[in-house]
Predict the 3D structure of the following.
Amino acid sequence: MAAFDTVIRHGTIATASDTYKADVGIKHGRVVAIGEALTDADETVDASGLLVLPGGIDSHVHISQPSGPGIVMADDFASATRAAAFGGNTFVMPYCLQAKGQPLREALKEYHALAEQNCHIDHSFHLIIADPTEAVLGQELPALIADGYTSLKIFMTYADLALSDYQILDVLSVARETGALVQIHAENYDAIRFLADRLERAGKTGPYYHAVSRPIAVEREATHRAISLSELIDVPIVVVHVSNREAMEEIRRAQQRGLKIVGETCPQYLVLTAEDLKDLGMEGAKYVCSPPPRDLASQQACWEGLQQGVFTLFSSDHCPFRYDDVEGKQPPNARTSFRWIPNGIPGIETRLPILFSEGVSKGRITLNQFVALTSTNHAKTYGLAGKGSIAVGYDADIALWDPRRTARIAQSDLHHGADYTPYEGIEITGWPVATMLRGNFVMRDGELVGNKGAGRYVSRGPTTSMQSTTG
Ligand code: DUC
Ligand code: ZN
Ligand code: ZN
């Protein structure tokens, strides 16, 4: 019997801390050796000229999530995880949304049923707590956290989701007692409602005004409040999808004061602006997401957040809706107001190429920062053992990258269920050319070679990192 099932030879390995030339020996789905001139394998993969990186972990994606009456997400678990694999990912963390009044285990049962036998890569779930009743806070949540659902998201906006400050404190208290990690969507609900009402009365109803209804102050205020509430309870939080300097500086200040605040940003805040929507009419709906993309100065601030370790997570916030579809971006009332356009854009396949190209290839971040921001930090933040690095004993979740390959992003080349990409035409240098899940190829040379159902659900432990590991 051969010593290894597979050996990846002649590649350049990069982790969150080091870059070096070595071979990787894989047996039974795990890395069992890293060394020079490894031989005696059933299969030898020549990675000359390629980077050997840990598979991307996207800890912020929405898949098959109920999004309001008559609205259907563009991806199911099969298409979303297929697209993720083509984008160099081996793990995703979608949300399990609790409907008002719904027991959490019932919601989870539904999501597991959707995901089971349908995933090309591994996954786990964050819970969205929409209804923090006494039963949820006292029994359901602590039991689920003990069962490995160790993170949850709460919202400060949206009619059906926004929690009061009192409710947020309640949830944070449970997190403190149980060791769970709470993500917060930080936008001020009443301020958005007020501004949206005014805009509608003035006849400013096109997609562009979605961004006008949620200005930076709305996000900055909520970010400050979320941080203050977490300080009161003395519990870490993750501020997700941060879009601008003022919110970023709130997080930086809190971190400098010793508070355990994790910051996350996303591709849309690096390469899109609100101006992109301005003259597009209804087509601006393709870019409607919350928080909205801002301006060039905000993009620069988000880069600084990534470079300086204020943000340790770079996620896609993949939340796909078809544009040319009444069940997607254009429900019957969408033309009457931006209010009715589903919030969210696709990005699961383009997250890593965009950060690699705009970040590593253009010299804004190092390759090691790229690995930390897209894989290692996600595993540590969300308690995912044995993933997020290339090391002996870790799962052989590996992406092979050609750092010199150039191509423009094009919808026709993508594998998601949406009918457009908001990143159409962006020139990319550096693409994943193969993705391997626990030692088996999922995508190889642009072909899907893995089986639907190969991806497993993975239970998680408590967070193991509140420190910056961006190098
Ligand atoms: N928040 C998200 O995290 N994703 C899409 C929409 C939203 O409001
Ligand atoms: Zn959100
Ligand atoms: Zn999201």
